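Appendix B, record 7
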Amino acid sequence: GDDHPWVKKFKLELYYSKANELSEDGDYDKAIELYQVLIESKRFSDESRITKMILKELWLTQCKKAVFLRDQGRYNESKILFRACMDESERHCDSDDSEMCEYTFAQAENLRQMGFTEDAVELYNVLMKIRTEQFGETHPLIARLKNALAICEMEKGNYLESKSLFKQVRFCVVYGDLDRLLAAVKSSRACP
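Structure tokens (predicted):
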């Protein structure tokens, strides 16, 4: 019957693969609903690898939906969802997961472009902390983050702070690896 552990496991895997498919097809609401059903099923412990994987996919789908809403001109809805995603960013974005860091950077860029500079700065700072601990002060990803922060400061009218950050970017470029910086900047343009 339906109570057999293998049947339950098969159903959960089916839900998970369907949720992934919906997310890829842009049906974000249905995908989010399925991920939440999986999480609420309490089939897995809160610390299991599978639960973390489902939470990560849920978070990524919410990020994609926020970008979709922004592209539709629904800025307030997008900001609310980005804000909810931001609250989860630090939990999901760690030094072992560069994909999550890239999505977090893309979130910050989206927020900045929508005019929510303070929210973007908050995310850039989360990433700065993680990436500095991982790579050190002169890594190209640090230069990329400092460049983004400098642009935010300039947009807020803090020209002296902006100038200081731009000088720090130049330090990273001079003492870091220029090829890696160019690759990091190029990859940031490919982010959603």
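Remarks on this record: DSSP finds nine helices and no strands in the chain. The first helix runs from residue 5 to 24.
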